[in-house]
Amino acid sequence: MDEVQSLDALAKLLNDLTERPYDINLHIQHFQLAKSLEGMESQIASACEMLVDFLAAGEQVWSILIAAKEKVVDLETKEGVEELLTLYSRAEADYLSIPILERHLRFLIDRHAYYSGEILKPAALGDLFSTAWTRTAIAEVVKKGIGHLTQSHLLWDLQRDWELQQLESIEPIEKNHLQDIIQVFFMTRLAQPHSSKTPYLNYRHIFVAHILTDSEETLQYYSTFTTNNRSSAQYEPLLVTASKARSHALKSLERRETFENALVRTKYSLDDYARYIVYERRARNPDLLVMVTVFERAIAEAEKRRFNGEVGAEEALRMFWIGLADALRINAAGEENELAVFQRAIRSVPGCGEIWARYMRAVERHGSGEQVAEIFNQAFGMGLVQSDAEQIIPVVLAHAGYLRRRMKGETDVDPLRSAVIEEILPTLIGILESGIDMVRKGAFLFVPTPFFWRVILNIASKTGDSKLRLEKYLAAIYQQAELDDNVISVWEAAAKCNKSSYLVWLLLTETLIKYQQVDKAAKVFLDIHTKKLDWPEAIWEAWINFEQLYGSIDELDQCLDKVEQAQYQVNLRRAKEAEKAGYQAYQAAIEAEPTTKEETTVHVETDVSMDVDADFGPRGGTKRQAEDEPVAAHKKAKMGRDRENSTVFVGNLPAGITEEELTGLFKDCGSIREVKITQMPETLVATVEFFDRDSVLAALTKDKKKLRDQEVAVHLAWKSTLYVTNFPESADDSVIRDLFGQYGTLFDVRWPSKKYKSTRRFCYVQFTSPTSAQNALELHGRELEPNHPMNVFLSNPERKKERTDQDANDREIYVAGLSKFTTQADLDKLFKTYGVIKEIRMTTDDKGHSKGFAFIEYEQEKDALASLDANNYELKKRRIAVTLADSRVRSRTRNAATDSGLGRIEDTRNRSVRIRNLPENTQDGLLQQVFEKITTVKRIEVFIDQNEAVVELENAAEAGKLLLRTDPIIYNGKTLQLSEERRDGAAARPNAPPSKTGGLFVPRAAASRPRAGLGHARKPAPASKVVVPSAPADQAASSSNQGRQGKGQDDFRKMLGGQ
Q1: Would the pLDDT of 249 be above 50?
Q2: Which of these, 740, 742, 737, 695, lies nearest to 714 by C-alpha position?
């Protein structure tokens, strides 16, 4: 934008500001444009002055005005000083600003020091800058920011140093009085929670150290003051009292430590301020000073973000002002404080109807009801409230409520005072009708100003308020006044503007029936039963009930026939809409689908000896599949049941509902595969799974339909499900349930199996409503442990491939047959020729020699595939074997001797325990959490058809301890039975009964084991053979096996965290 264009834009802005002086966005544009122009310093000052004349401004504006004033004002005159002090007061009244307060303090202290020296104070200044006047002025400034926990020290320290300086220079005759003042000054500070430093990012103990340092510093100053100014006999009791006061303040500050940390970590985000405020408001004994200051801090931050153009800052600013006003009222802060906040709030957010409504109710509550009309006119006179119907309604209702209560009060005093009532009633009706016109279609509102009647035109909404709040109020007023025809007229007019709203038609027909206009009601039902309404079923049901009460047999039959025909037409239309929506969604999915990579086939040399690990369970057992099992690189995943895309969640079900009733509700939507009804503690819910995902769109139209006269809620199952990862390893099912349960009723928490990957750390949290899931998204980024920001996302099935970690196997290779002299440097030198290596993991013995195998993870899948060419390569005079690191494949040494002298399979069996009597549908992950609290678990495998599992422990000693455990292990209400794992899968003997020997060790029963060691040959290795694992079926909670993106455990967690 060149200079000419900038000047034209400036001229247009000034013209717009003349018409809309209370529009904050225009003032911000004016300020920013003036700053962008060179040599326009005067225009910047003009923009600031214009802004503060109409609206509240932040420190970025007031700092400019104060600096400019200090340059031109004559501080040798009383008028000049008062002019500057007035500017400071105005700035401090708008928003809390520690820099402005600190600047004000330094000005007072400097001027006092200036006139306390050799410079003679002009007589015209009078008491200004005298010691007494300065003390009072300093105290008033410090009081405005003393509740700021982490920055109030910037103000208080200045006051402390000034007071101590005065104590040193005061005359002895006045010293005792000042000592008493400073005594109270210190004790008051010690009782206040405060910190001298802002907490460092997420360092809890550092934050506490800062608290202690600051508290001790204040206490040390007080100790020095007491030593120098009090007798030795007074010293100890005074310090004991001070320590108690400090202890209480310290605990108060420590309770708020988490919130202060969160503010710093998120750079003072408005969401964290909101959580901080909720904590303060819900406290058993709220600290009004701290709570109000937290509100003030949040308001100042929201204003700063609004000024910088951040989306949502205006809405947050309004909510903070509303919350502050409510908090003052609830905590009985007093009329003066409450009204002062409203006067500040309407300068900050003049377009907020809720603030104006609360302001009117406040003046009425405090006995100044005559100001309500004045405030009402002021609200609309600014020209902002009427820009939004949601802002008009509360203002109109507040004024109408005042008039109604006044009218009722007059009636209670004297029922015969009809003259006053006749005066109030037309005004009340006029206010409501005018409000309805503004909300509905736009209306001319005449608002008096000092010079003329201002005409405001607003086009708010063609359909008006969907909740019909003003219409309901007006109808109630007409009814109380016994103006029956006017009541009907209200709903007839509303029906003309809200033709598709079932609610307005119901209210109209109910009103007609109430006033005995049955024929007219019947005609309305007949006219609207085929209209396209937002809920036609409600109208049909009302019509049938009406005809049953008031109609003849023929009229009832005619009604039922017409309803049946209308229902058929509506279902047909909905089916077409669902089909169209499904086609559009299909097209969108096709367009969004990435180009499929060419299938790659990996050829493995036949001389590489690998085998699949032996099964623990009997041959007949059906193993629970891992929830995210990897597949071989050359195999395509099979298509299975698409549960997440084909399932709807049904909530708010009436008690005793049956599967047949639910099937009947959804039968016209598509073929149903399965219906599951679950009784929650306080509600009944169900899941309905279809064979075809396209049926879901039609099923969603059943939302708000009635079963047994009760509306049910229908939504996509995944919309109430969250994908949660990167939480601490110590977080188990109870921790997750407690954390997420505060946002709503939990339906289920699903954990992944760790059978193939012990490092997996994620879960799926499903609520009974999407709203709860949306609210719980605020946990995203929260650190339950330092440097571990938790990731919380909606579990959208279409995004599964973005977050899955299963394809880490496709980027990782397994290298076997290494010489014991091989080093990581040797492997890096060889394998980096194929691509960028992310990590090399090689196990070594006590002497640092290789144990013969290693895992190498690449950044890209293609590089891992290319590295397979190194198979059979000679390294350190040994031929190495290179394969993809499928975690289910073990090396040829899987049955070689272990440290126990047994083969690997026998060693594994020896440290495994069979678990029986499991509850149905036991989750591997949850069961593992139970046993991890007792012993060290390597993995757990569940056999769902037998309700059994095998737990593999760290060593045989741990297995023995577990079998000898006398305390029962209870899981989901069932006592688990433990026994040894034998070769045939049968139990050797159950776990030990309660000890009768006083806790003495009872040895395990001897079991037949293959001999090993000196004089016995080890079992020969099997013939060279490559066994390729088949792709397992997907499970409900598994990550997708398709669409590999190269995401490993570390990578996908960082990706989800936005790192």
Answers
A1: yes
A2: 695
